[in-house]
Amino acid sequence: MNKLLISTLLASAMAFPSAAETLRVGVATAQTGALAPFDTPVIAGIHIAVDEINAAGGIDGKIKIELLERDVRSDAAQTSIATQELVDEGVSVIVLPCDADPALAAIGVVSDAQIPAISTCASSPTLPQIGGEYMFANFPGDNVQAAVSAKWAHDEGLRTAYIVYSPDTQYTTMPLYFAEVFEKLGGKMLGQDTHTIGQQDFSAIATRIAALDPQPDVIMTSTYEPDFPSMLKALRAAGVESQMIGSDGIDSPTTFSLGAVAEGLVFTTAGHPTEGSPLEAFNKKFEEVHKKAPETVFNAVGYDLVKVIEAAVIAADGSTDPKVLRDAIANLENVQGATSTITYKGTDGMPLREVSLIRVKDGGRELLGQPTPDASLIPEPRVQ
Amino acid sequence: MDLFLQQTVNAFALGGTYALLALGLAMVFSTMGLINFAHGELMTIAGYILMACGLAGVPFALSVPLAICAAVIAAVAMERIAFRPVRNASGATMLVTSFAVSMILQVLFQNFISARSQAVLLPQVLSESVRFGGLVIGVNKIAAIATTIVMLIFLDRFMKHHRVGIAMRAAAEDFSVARLMGIRANTVIAGAFALSGFLAGVAAVLWVSQRASVDPLMGFTPVLKAFIAAILGGLGSLRGAVAGGFLLGFIEIYLAAYLPQGMQEFRDPIALCLVVLVLIFRPNGLIPSPALKAEKV
């Protein structure tokens, strides 16, 4: 009897404070497989932010964050299963993979359980649109990025464009948004090509573009490694001199090590470490923790994600109730992350964030600007 | 006409790379009846050596042989560690073993190197191009075509005149009889793996020189293409593998070049349909292996 009493007391003593002072965050992301290159850096950023907050005593000095992590192997079905497991464990917030497609696979589970979910770095504006009120993104939308780069191209006096896109994922259809904005601005589209993700050889496409007369002023694509370097090299080897525009997927060391072929390349991304910026501070911190410089801005995007959760808990007066947290996230304004300020208020879950426009110069990055495009220029999300 | 010639050069370059890949698979299949799906990981290993050499400042001319050596060593080690214990098991066991080796290596790369692509520094000359009349040909295309020709000549001579090559051909035809003649099974199979590693290493250099980066899953696409090419050419037949590789390269490039815009999305399925069509008329492949005792009922 005594033993039972003691163990019951012990159990309740252990259970009570943790229920009140811990925020359980479920992380169902890809540690292996095709999405791992994007999810693992975000997770590294999440860990840095969580350690930092917990070391300072937790959110608001009292609520510690506990991460429950599952590997979804870049698989849509596995994402749904892992999410269900995390829901059963009673998490308050769920982090989903980078790509819109596996994130959407978990949406049924998340909506039923009424737990807010944030995708690590999916940038398709269709994600919260399809996902409903419990789905949030954590990256500048594809349509916003395309509006920024199309506006830049137009301002530079580039009037004709060609796009190369892949219908394989939502993200790789960003050039379709670009074409829409470019035409709205008065530019002329000369044509388009499609490719498959993982396509090794772009020589047929490059030869076709090289045969165009007149040559397009600008070629836009949102393909990323390893396809992008292959495409760029094929185009340049075929004699195509047009301005190339890419997107955040090529914000990677490979792009800067390509040498002469990448000179002058312009792309949009989530942030740029200007002097004294939070991103610069984050990069320093990352280097302290990992003893090497971050390879990608996705690390900082993970930090942003935790900052959003922290801000939501504070806004909800320390509540860890999922429904309360959802409403708190949806009403967040100007949360200071590492890459940008983040606002969800007034959006459908696709955050308002800065877009940085970068040019490759002498193998390094040159900031062209961090413009906020005119709202009338941003195309409507389109379900591919 | 220029455009057609240009696309034909593209097709030769791509087809040549596919031929080298398919040959690597066929080499192992012809001796031990195993489709080695970990062949792609041999390429990834060679790619990582190129990356490491680039970072260490080793000149490209030296890092290429190093990368190829690494692929050969890895292939021989793979045979010794993973495939020798299951050599006498069923074909399915060996197939699953090769998938396991492939996945284990991928996860090791992801966890111990990086999940993200790593840049490979390449000499600038590989990005340049040369003009021949109206044709613009990239240096890496010329390199791919030249390498393929040299490799094919080397392999032909090796298989015809070298002792191990002759032994491998004998083993491919009838392993039991070859062993009765005093040919050592271990030597022949290790030799086949070493050669397939050599081919994977060479193909990896060509492959990486196009994409300038290496990632843990890099081997998947090439091994898939090689498999299709090997089936198309006739499984187990070396000449068939070469023919299949080139035919696949031509199909892919011409479809990408001449399929109407609206159909481009269906390029890959159409390419595979063409492969199936060829197989309907030649069920054992373009140049079937003489040792293939496929019973058709």
Any idea of the CATH topology of the largest domain in chain A? Rossmann fold
User: Helical element count of chain A?
Assistant: 14
What top-tier CATH class of the largest domain in chain A fits best?
Alpha Beta
Cross-sheet strand order for the largest sheet of chain A: 7-6-8-9-10-13-14
Instruction: Please name the CATH architecture of the largest domain in chain A.
Output: 3-Layer(aba) Sandwich
Count of discrete domains of chain B:
1
Instruction: Report the total helices of chain B.
Output: 11
* Broad structural category of chain B: mainly alpha
Oligomeric nature of the chains: heterodimer
Kindly report the average pLDDT value of chain B.
92
Whole-number count of domains of chain A: 2
Descriptive key words:
heterodimer; A: 384 residues; Rossmann fold; 2 domains; 7-stranded mixed beta sheet; 5-stranded parallel beta sheet; 14 helices; B: 297 residues; mainly alpha; two-stranded antiparallel ribbon; 11 helices; 71% helix; 4% strand
Care to describe what's here?
The complex is a heterodimer of chains A (384) and B (297). Chain A is 42% helix and 17% strand. In chain A, the strands form 3 sheets. Chain A has a 7-stranded mixed sheet, with helices on one face. With 384 residues, chain A is α/β, with parallel strands linked by helices. Chain A contains 14 helices and 14 strands. In chain A, α6 links the parallel β4 and β5 (135-136). Chain A has 2 domains: 2-139 and 275-342, 3-Layer(aba) Sandwich (Rossmann fold); 142-269 and 356-377, 3-Layer(aba) Sandwich (Rossmann fold). Chain B has 297 residues and is mainly alpha-helical. Chain B has one domain (2-216). Chain B is 71% helix and 4% strand. Chain B has 11 helices and 4 strands. In chain B, the strands form 2 sheets. In chain B, strands 1-4 form a two-stranded antiparallel ribbon. A two-stranded antiparallel sheet of chain B has the order 2-3. In chain B, β2 and β3 form a beta hairpin. Chain B is globular. The model of chain B has no long low-confidence stretch (mean pLDDT 92). The interface between A and B is large, with 46 and 49 residues.
